[in-house]
Automatic annotation (TrEMBL), chain A:
<dbReference type="InterPro" id="IPR041916">
    <property type="entry name" value="Anti_sigma_zinc_sf"/>
</dbReference>
<protein>
    <submittedName>
        <fullName>HEAT repeat domain-containing protein</fullName>
    </submittedName>
</protein>
<dbReference type="InterPro" id="IPR016024">
    <property type="entry name" value="ARM-type_fold"/>
</dbReference>
<dbReference type="Pfam" id="PF13490">
    <property type="entry name" value="zf-HC2"/>
</dbReference>
<dbReference type="InterPro" id="IPR027383">
    <property type="entry name" value="Znf_put"/>
</dbReference>
<dbReference type="Pfam" id="PF13646">
    <property type="entry name" value="HEAT_2"/>
</dbReference>
<dbReference type="InterPro" id="IPR011989">
    <property type="entry name" value="ARM-like"/>
</dbReference>
Automatic annotation (TrEMBL), chain B:
<feature type="signal peptide">
    <location>
        <begin position="1"/>
        <end position="19"/>
    </location>
</feature>
<dbReference type="Pfam" id="PF13349">
    <property type="entry name" value="DUF4097"/>
</dbReference>
<feature type="domain" description="DUF4097">
    <location>
        <begin position="120"/>
        <end position="245"/>
    </location>
</feature>
<keyword id="KW-0732">Signal</keyword>
<protein>
    <submittedName>
        <fullName>DUF4097 family beta strand repeat-containing protein</fullName>
    </submittedName>
</protein>
<dbReference type="InterPro" id="IPR025164">
    <property type="entry name" value="Toastrack_DUF4097"/>
</dbReference>
Automatic annotation (TrEMBL), chain C:
<comment type="similarity">
    <text>Belongs to the sigma-70 factor family. ECF subfamily.</text>
</comment>
<dbReference type="InterPro" id="IPR007627">
    <property type="entry name" value="RNA_pol_sigma70_r2"/>
</dbReference>
<keyword id="KW-0238">DNA-binding</keyword>
<dbReference type="InterPro" id="IPR013324">
    <property type="entry name" value="RNA_pol_sigma_r3/r4-like"/>
</dbReference>
<dbReference type="InterPro" id="IPR039425">
    <property type="entry name" value="RNA_pol_sigma-70-like"/>
</dbReference>
<dbReference type="Pfam" id="PF08281">
    <property type="entry name" value="Sigma70_r4_2"/>
</dbReference>
<feature type="domain" description="RNA polymerase sigma-70 region 2">
    <location>
        <begin position="24"/>
        <end position="89"/>
    </location>
</feature>
Length: 261, 250, 174
């Protein structure tokens, strides 16, 4: 036992790099070995010296660094934001989404760290980027082959207080062109919060003209009546004339039509 | 080369003979199987990684059609069981060309499936762990049993019934019907955020959603209900415009 | 994950968000300075070279390849030091001949530090570098091996040996 000195493990022990079992064995040995005790004590002292702060660099360093950074920013011109187009290959999209979401999570967690620092502009910047990433994730999810994933993308709207035009347009396209009824319905619901937008109103009217699913038809009719959209009267009248319009839709239209004409 | 072709032919013929005219096709490289049918369609699991279409009872080909192929909206019968099967990228498109007889299709349990019934056909799906999309566009009903989600299903007039095993949490579930009932069973410990809505129907559930009792299940007043169960989790959205909604603990 | 990793931040920097470099500067400029100071024993030089390292991070941000950030940063720091000595010491272009200046004249350096600097000066440059980098706990043996162009196993054995040697020199000197 005496012969099995643990000198080689001392640095790892002090740095806390030993596994639990190695650590126990190490401590057991040191307890009964004076050589190793001495070596351990010496190394500990030495490590402390090593960790002692050396003279700190002057503030000049930081000032100069920041000046250099500012200059570089000016050279760079406007900050280039990444804007990824949904690619045709959806597996790569999934990876991109995964990456975006990982970054998202990280960016959120970073928020609290940054608040403690006086880096307000960074927060603003980061916020922008977070939105950008959310938007990218949302837009690419909405192009996914899976209806469930597209719905997930549409549901992402809850993350945005003031979605920009690109998002509204993407949701409008889902409502107008998605082949899956559930996705169209979810897109309708997502847009319902933004009926003050002209794009949304026009999209609803356009959707009402071409939508075949009665559940979505009736939902759109109710939404348009609620905002007293006069332009909705025409497509509603057309639906009344169509033979294949469900009776309950016709009833609904007859009931509400007077209120907007 | 000719010899090779010959062996291939021989193998092919042998396969057909062995499978008693069932049709099979490998699913290597296939992400989604899309099935469209006007008639009843039953989809079950099996253990091999291939599509199998049961030939079903003998179909009488009219005497005049001898030597001719069945042609329908979806394409030409290239399977000899009344189906057209075409690969498009990572998707396999399966059309049932027949207008009267139902069909039984077997797929591996992890397969992603999208099924569409365009006329009166009922859709029955049992035992899958992949993604499921089902759309009964006219009068058909949908029964989806022993699945883990995500499920996206929609019916017009038929009822929509889904019984879940353990519910996957990664992607939302969406179950809509216009005139049919929506009847969903979940394991009682499923974490989920529920959104239940109906325009002219009622909502019944034995999950902890505020309501008053009615025949054991609770009828929930108010027609847009949002509730978290078991601490919240995957989004499950259920909607029937004119039908009732039943959400049961399994 | 408690905070955003260096790698993620640098990734964002390389995509054009230069302001985030401030965070990396705050996190690491002392480490870099420390390393350069211990290597050279010269405060002014350490400060100038630290400056240089961060200039290079700005300038070469696009060449960041998503590897371990510390490895990348210290590789740049080593190169800066090397370049400095190459310029100022005529024909020598190798770390092996890096001249070492003792620093007793620096009056704000503690006595312990002076002894440590002396002990470090007794090592050959490669060993000195290895041991200084090893003392930053953030740098794993794998990363250290990458910086020094060796294997983790070899680096570990060597670090152990040097630490023991260095400690003995140090203790003898006080």
């Amino acid at each position: 036992m005496e012969k099995n000195h643990v000198f080689d493990q001392i640095p790892d022990y002090l740095d806390g790099n030993l596994s639990k079992s190695d650590r126990a064995a190490f401590e057991k040995h040191v307890e009964q070995c004076t050589d190793c005790q001495k070596e351990l004590e010496e190394m500990k002292t030495f490590f402390n010296v090593f960790e002692e702060e050396v003279p700190t660099p002057s503030n000049r360093l930081k000032t100069k660094f920041e000046a250099a950074l500012e200059q570089e920013k000016n050279n760079q011109g406007k900050v280039v934001q990444m804007e990824s187009k949904p690619s045709a290959n959806w597996t790569s999209n999934v990876l991109k989404i995964a990456a975006s979401i990982a970054l998202l999570v990280a960016a959120f967690q970073m928020g609290s760290l940054f608040q403690q620092r006086k880096a307000n502009e960074d927060i603003a910047q980061l916020q922008d980027e977070t939105n950008q990433m959310k938007q990218t994730a949302m837009l690419s999810l909405m192009e996914n082959q899976s209806a469930s994933k597209r719905i997930q993308g549409v549901n992402y709207i809850e993350e945005f207080e003031q979605p920009d035009a690109a998002i509204i347009q993407a949701l409008a396209n889902r409502l107008l062109y998605d082949e899956n009824d559930n996705v169209r319905m979810t897109a309708f619901e997502a847009l319902a919060k933004f009926t003050s937008s002209e794009t949304v109103k026009n999209t609803y009217i356009e959707a009402l003209e071409q939508e075949k699913n009665p559940s979505i038809q009736v939902a759109i009719i109710q939404a348009l009546v609620q905002i007293q959209e006069k332009k909705a009267a025409e497509p509603m009248k057309k639906l009344l004339e169509k033979e294949d319009t469900q009776p309950f839709i016709k009833d609904q239209i007859r009931a509400v039509l007077p209120s907007i004409t | 080369m000719r010899k090779f072709t010959f062996i291939l032919m021989a193998l092919f013929v042998a396969t057909i003979a062995k499978a008693q005219n069932d049709y099979t096709k490998s699913l290597n490289g296939i992400q989604w199987v899309k099935i469209e049918s006007k008639t009843d369609i039953v989809i079950k699991t099996h253990s091999s990684n291939e599509l199998l279409i049961k030939s079903g009872p003998e179909i009488k080909t009219p005497e005049r059609a001898k030597g001719l192929k069945l042609v329908g909206e979806g394409g030409t019968d290239n399977t000899n069981v009344g189906f057209s099967v075409v690969q498009d990228g990572n998707t396999l498109i399966v059309y049932n060309l027949r207008k009267s007889k139902g069909a039984e299709i077997h797929l591996p349990a992890s397969q992603n499936i999208a099924v569409k019934s365009t006329w009166n056909g009922d859709i029955e799906i049992d035992g899958f762990s992949g993604e499921i999309e089902a759309d009964a566009q006219l009068n058909g009903g949908i029964k989806i049993h022993n699945v883990n989600g995500p499920v996206t299903a929609n019916s017009l007039n038929g009822q929509l019934e889904v019984v879940f095993g353990k519910v996957k949490q990664d992607s939302p579930i969406s179950l809509y019907s216009t005139n049919g009932a929506v009847d969903v069973s979940l394991p009682s410990n499923t974490p989920a955020n529920l959104a239940l809505s109906t325009l002219n129907g009622n909502v019944y559930t034995d999950f902890e959603v505020k309501a008053e009792d009615k025949d054991g299940l609770k009828s929930v007043l108010g027609r847009n209900i949002k509730a978290s169960i078991n601490g919240g989790g995957v989004k499950i959205s259920m909607k029937s415009t004119n039908g009732n909604m039943y959400l049961r603990k399994k | 994950m408690e905070t955003l990793s260096d790698e993620m931040i640098m990734q964002k920097v390389s995509e054009g968000n230069l302001d985030l470099l401030k965070e990396l500067f705050d996190r690491h400029h002392k480490h870099v300075y420390n390393f350069l100071y211990k290597m050279s024993g010269d405060q002014m030089l350490a400060e100038d070279l630290t400056q240089d390292v961060f200039y290079k991070l700005i300038k070469y941000r696009n060449s960041y390849n998503n590897g371990v950030f510390l490895s990348w940063m210290f590789t740049i720091a080593r190169n800066s030091l090397k370049t400095h000595y190459t310029r100022n010491h005529k024909s020598h272009d190798d770390m092996e001949v890096l001249a070492y200046k003792a620093v007793e004249e620096e009056n704000d350096v503690s006595e312990n530090n002076a002894h440590l600097q002396y002990a470090l000066s007794q090592l050959d440059p490669y060993d000195r570098e290895l041991v200084i980098l090893n003392r930053y706990k953030e740098i794993k043996y794998d990363d250290l091996a990458e910086i020094m162009g060796s294997t983790p196993g070899a680096v570990k054995t060597r670090v152990c040996r040097i630490l023991k040697k260095l400690k003995n020199i140090y203790l003898e000197s006080i």
